[in-house]
Fold:
Amino acid sequence: MAVSGSAPIDLTAALVMQPTALADWLIVAPVALCISVGAILMIVRHSTRLHAGIAIIGLVLLVVIDGALLWKVATHGPFTMVMGRWLPPFGIAFTADMAGAALALAGAIVALACAVHASADVDDSGRRYGFYPFLMLLMAGVSGAFLTGDIFNLYVWFEVLLVSSFGLIVLGSTKEQIDGALKYAVLNLIGTTLFLIAVGYLYAIFGTLNMADIVLKVTGAGEGAPLMTLAALFTLAFAMKAAAFPVNFWLPASYHTPKIVVSALFGGLLTKVGIYALLRVMIMLFPVQRDELSLAIALVAALTMILGAMGALAQNDIRRMLGYVIISGIGTMLAGVAIGSPSAVAGVIFYALNSVVVMTALYLTIGHAARLGGGWTLSELSGLYAKAPWFSAMALALFFAGSGLPPFSGFWPKAMLTKSAIDIGAWWLATAILVSGFLCTIAFARVFLLCFWRPSPAGMKAITVSAQPPSFAPLAALTLLVIGFGLFPEGVMRLSQHAADGLADPSAYIRSVFPNGAAR
Structure:
């Protein structure tokens, strides 16, 4: 019997048939660049003198790419690129919107500052053990988490940044570092496991992992779908990642143990990825369930804020103090998630952008202070203003910003969040934001008065942390950003509001993924 010729196969229902526009490659360029530079660093792992230069060049390119990505999103709206040209929801999607692109750019800026600082602070031994490859792998994970449009791949990028952070936190292999790394690893692995369970549960319910597709299916889900269970699992997993009460004890027990430039990276970046994931899931995917959980989230936020600030007041070691300041800031951002209004979400995004820069700069500040003053504690440090007045002025500006005092950048997001709490009648939550800010102000005032303003006793010598002291240039650049955003906050406010509107109304996000309508 004759076999008839096969009919032509129509691939338009499965594949993107048009060539990918050159500008759309911007969305995967940050991850590809970081992995490529990390691979190059491994190839030249024995030529440690080249590591800093290669990494700095790579991170400069990352800042340029993320800046171009943010400009494209701001001018043309969210856009999507799928791997292998497979149409979503089956193709793995990278989707850039204002929230993800802005945080990716902020992360690239502080990573560049830390790489420049580390060029003198990380010795040859640290380079041989992989500081710069781990840094590039960390940025690949951070960039991927901010730009992915697939919730399972959000989990994958979390794993990438966790693996690299494990390598960075034990760099040096001291007993203190191993102890801190163990606490850091155990709690983060528990959080990651909860995240993976929630992702599997979500896929079992909806049969998709694409975030835009999930938004469409959540709105049509019946009352029998266990969406509250899903939302609670995601909230718990991301709260552990972000170090919210009562699962926050791992952060101050671990962030003070590695080299100060590693603490700066962790303090600036890692907890913000958890907050970003919480915003993406609870504001965009499960807004109804977030509203039902809002009181519980608000209570956790208030306890995180107040206990974090009180913990900062109780510390003698400044590195541990900054860990508690981070926790207090996480509580402030959780308050915005609990409120859930567009203005509150805008305040969270503004606070996250500010905290990425401020916390990185604060850790670099205490690293310089330890080098100048001979210790890490309030009882050991003194007389820094007399030794370095310009450095002391930068430190004071950063302390004001970390406390949320005007006219520095930390004031504006706290004002936005306080007003949002008052607008919905949550006076107790607004009070918690103000009280935690007041307590953090006292904690920073103690540091400045005792370490900078108090005269130093005769005969005190500076400690030797590395043969070549790090440059003040990265710290100065971050401080100028903080001062600039404080004096001229309108641009960041508009950006944050635009990002918040995109999360609250993801229609543009969905159109970028499904330009011809959702897949059947």
Summary: DSSP finds 22 helices and two strands in the chain.
